[in-house]
Design brief:
This is MoxR-vWA-beta-propeller ternary system domain-containing protein. InterPro entries: bpX2. By secondary structure, this protein is of the alpha+beta class. It folds into 2 domains: about 90 residues; about 130 residues, no CATH class. Helices cover about 20% and strands about 30% of the residues. The protein is built from 6 helices and 16 strands. An 8-stranded mixed beta sheet has the order 15-14-12-11-8-10-9-16. The chain is elongated, with a radius of gyration of 20 Å.
């Protein structure tokens, strides 16, 4: 990037910021429903991640006026602040990006084979497989999908129809997901299980056969685009 760039990010997309935590030249202004990023200097890897972020992008003129891409006339000004280094703001405001939460042991629930046959709406696969698929898939196949990534190189894809990739498919009910062909005992209603894990509306808890679990916030997912999939691969490959 040449010069300064500003990005206005919807607050529910804040999970994407974790991928930028270790990069320099980024400051943040918290405007409530949205977050403003100001990006200064050049860093190819950082800038590829910036391009994959959802939200509005602007070129920042020396006097603070904002110009949208492919336009010449300024429209609006960058907020006065306060502005904070991104890493500093995240240290007190956000959990790490990717899969929110850590694997934890839950002894009250046991996964067993069985349950009602339902269509899977979640797929756990590798970031390499996801990157390759997204690079050639038509937009009509990507538009219904969102995805989240963890630092182990795993991607959870959500939507329907799911891509034809090797991986583990999950069935989700009321925010609780188990591997297709499996269910939990005791046979509690999904909403009871969700409440036991303390998840909020829009969140997802992914139960695994080793009695572990992953908690994904609604903001952990991003829209499935070629740029976003490529950026996720580059981040995973660098870590």
């Amino acid at each position: 990037m040449t010069g300064s760039v500003a990005v206005r990010l919807p607050r529910h997309e804040t999970a994407m910021l974790g991928r930028l935590r270790c990069h320099r030249g980024i400051t943040l202004h918290d405007a409530g429903e949205s977050l403003w990023l100001r990006v200064d200097g050049e860093d190819d890897r950082r800038d590829r991640i910036i391009l994959a972020l959802p939200g509005d992008r602007f070129r920042v003129l020396p006097d603070g006026q904002l110009v949208r891409p492919h336009q010449l006339v300024p429209k609006g000004r960058i907020p006065e602040g306060p502005w904070h280094p991104l890493a500093e703001w995240m240290s007190v405001s956000l959990a790490p990006a990717g899969f929110a939460g850590e694997l934890a042991d839950r002894r009250k629930l046991t996964l067993v084979r069985g349950g009602t046959v339902r269509d899977a709406t979640l797929l756990l696969t590798s970031v390499h497989a996801w990157r390759d698929y997204a690079a050639s898939a038509p937009r009509v196949r990507l538009d219904p999908l969102v995805f989240a990534m963890n630092r182990s190189g795993d991607v959870i894809i959500k939507g329907s129809p799911l891509p034809p990739l090797v991986g583990t498919r999950y069935v989700e009910r009321d925010g609780v997901a188990v591997e297709a062909g499996w269910t939990w005992e005791p046979a509690l209603e999904p909403i009871v299980v969700a409440q036991a894990f303390g998840i909020e509306e829009g969140d997802l808890v992914l139960l695994t056969r080793d009695r572990g679990w992953q908690h994904l916030g609604a903001g952990d997912f991003v829209r499935a685009t070629r740029q976003a999939a490529r950026a996720s691969f580059e981040v995973a490959d660098a870590e």
